[in-house]
Every structure is written in C-alpha cells, then in structure tokens.
Write a structure and sequence with these properties.
Layout (H helix, E strand, L loop, with lengths): L1 E14 L5 E13 L19 H4 L6 H9 L5
C-alpha cells in the first residue's frame, strides 16, 4: 500500500469508572493506493477485506462509518 494524505483525524478518550484517563487514542486515516500484497487482520481486527463502494451497502456498518465514507466520497 502506498500511503498518501490524511483524510480524517479524530481522537478517542477512554476513562475508568472514577473518570480518570485510561487511554487517549489519536486516529489518523490516510488515503492510500493498493500496490501489492495480501491483506491480513492483526490483533486489532478479527477480519480484514477490501470492498468496492457498491459492496458496502450490504454490510453492517455504523452510521458514523457511513457518514465518513460519504464525506470522503467513497459512497454516494
């Protein structure tokens, strides 16, 4: 994969029951082109696959993900 410019940046803060900071994640999604190789899930995912825009419609994805894909013009 050939990484390009950032297309979406957000952070996620997780707190414990007392309200203390447990984790602070900063997520940077990059536009990228597939160059070669086989996609494999790692310890952060149970599965990993490539999808064409028309295939996304039949998947169970969150509204947030749908809105993100529309924002980057991957979905109509």
């Amino acid at each position: 994969m050939s990484a390009k410019e950032p297309i979406h940046v957000f952070d996620l803060i997780e707190r414990d029951r007392q309200g203390h900071l447990r984790f602070h994640y900063v997520i940077v999604d990059l536009r990228a082109d597939y160059v070669a190789g086989t996609l494999h899930p790692s310890d952060d995912a149970a599965d990993a696959r490539w999808f064409a825009p028309k295939e996304i419609k039949g998947l169970r994805i969150t509204e947030t993900t749908k809105e993100f894909l529309k924002k980057i013009q991957f979905l109509p």
